[in-house]
Write a structure and sequence with these properties.
Blueprint: H1 12-23, H2 29-41, H3 46-53, H4 57-82, H5 86-118
Helix pairs in contact: 2-4
InterPro entries: Transposase_8, Transposase_8_domain, Trp_repressor/repl_initiator, WH-like_DNA-bd_sf
GO molecular function: sequence-specific DNA binding; transposase activity
Coiled coil: 88-115
Length: 124
């Protein structure tokens, strides 16, 4: 990294942080899953696992949270897929028919009320 003339020199601490940031290991999705599953097995402490893998415990916990949330979303997707089963299709058709019958009955009721009012019947 080149320095522009007239700008102050960055501190050694900042230079080290920049180097660490640029040389940080990128973990593949498979590696993250393997590490999270090892942690979930509980055969060793999370701290020991993270030390062995060279990651911060906070990073492990964020991966773990993402992993569990993704699983939850996937399972919710399976439930949505099950909602298109033949039994559900029959129930949806039945509900639709009932809604239609209710709409017709409501309309008939309104028409009867209007005809009673028009004939000089009792007002409700």
């Amino acid at each position: 990294m080149r320095q522009k003339p007239g700008t102050p020199k960055p501190s050694a601490e900042k230079v080290v942080k920049d180097i660490r940031r640029r040389t940080r290991k990128q973990h593949s999705a498979e590696e993250k899953i393997r590490i999270v599953l090892e942690g979930l097995r509980g055969e060793e402490s999370i701290a020991e696992l993270c030390r062995r893998e060279g990651i911060a415990t906070s990073l492990y916990y964020s991966w773990s949270k993402e992993f569990l949330e993704a699983g939850k979303k996937r399972l919710a997707g399976d439930a949505a897929r099950q909602a298109s089963s033949p039994e559900v299709k029959v129930l949806r058709a039945e509900a639709s028919a009932l809604k239609e019958a209710l709409a017709e009955a409501t309309l008939e009721n309104r028409l009867l009320k209007k005809s009673m009012i028009g004939d000089g019947g009792d007002h409700e």
